[in-house]
Design a protein that fits this description.
The protein is mainly α. Helices cover 79% and strands 0% of the residues. Helix 16 (311-328) runs antiparallel to helix 17.
Amino acid sequence: MTAFLIIGILVLLVAGFPIGVALGGASMVWVYVTQRVPDFIIMQRLVGGVNSFPLLAVPFFIYAGNLMNAAGLTSHIFGFARSLVGWMRGGLGHVNVGASIIFAGMSGAAVADAGGLGTIEIKAMTDEGYDKDVSVAITAASSTIGPIIPPSLPLVVYGVMAQASIGRLFIAGIVPGFLMGGALMILIRYFAHKRDYPVDAKFKVINVVRSLWKGLPALFTPVLIIGGIALGVFTPTEAAIAASAYSLFLGVVVYRSITFKQFVAVSLDTLETTAIILFIVAGASIFAWILTIMQVPAIFAQIILGISENPIIVLLLINIVLFVIGFFMETIAAITIMVPVLLPVALSIGVDPVHLGIFMILNLMIGLLTPPVGMVLYVLSRVAKMPFEDCAKATAVFIIPLVIVLILVTFIPQVSLWLPNLIFN
């Protein structure tokens, strides 16, 4: 019957149904066919799957990110990053990464980073003589930092599914996020020397001060979010609401760049995106519940531990499973499906749920750079007007530093756990 359920989901996906419909629809059919549980359980699980206070953070973080893009804050972020690291060889490549690190503290989504900053970054780099394929590749790879450094939509969903502290998850992503940025900068430096890319501008303190002053209201956003959570001023959900209110204030009052028409468009886009995400979570909650009553997580754990009980081997197998899943499945769907299956395995070898969440999201972010699903590649393909296949080919080499960081985060738990343990203990 488990095979029947999984085949049903695959058939619906191949037929072109959205992932939420495939998960929920196949699960409903399974309930009706097997008659193992009362029909009203379906509605209970649908409602229960989204009836979660932490999930309120999802629409507000999406709203904050959309408002920032509409307000044009990305140009201020790019300008500040340019004044900081533009003096290095291959300066605009490093600026690209630096801007993504800053924007990561505002949006929490890789696609928002790619779409919001991508237009500015790719144009600036190609105008300065950078090869288009390298410009796209750096933009794609750096956008994956977005959901690692807080705030993070995937980490919110993971925290709900795994019943883990979202505050600890947010803080745990800071060090891995900066490691991702550092690893990408090392590769950029190699390309800069190999292809003789120029220095963007000499470092001048006055330029840093000017760009900081001009973009200070926008740059304060990550301080508001991360600082507020770390200091216990508000919860991650409350931080999302504060970020939305602050972004709206910047766009309407400070920069005066959001018109009423844009405000309505941003609000409707947020509603649409939120509905899609919550629909996936609702459908996946039924699927996860069926897997639980069928004891699939326990069976999967037995299979993995039957291969080896060595924690290193088990963590390696978990990462291989996630890497393959990332090729074919959207991030939120992958989280909602795989957390109930992988969490028992991780707990059985003593892995902290927060540690699992960080390397799981990092792994799935790499999936955004791999065909056939690769959402970031599709976005940048449109932004750069470059064939999808060429985007994927150019980005392939930049997956290497991300995989190296993934290995470090996976097998050295303190990389992600040190900071939350320091702050919350």
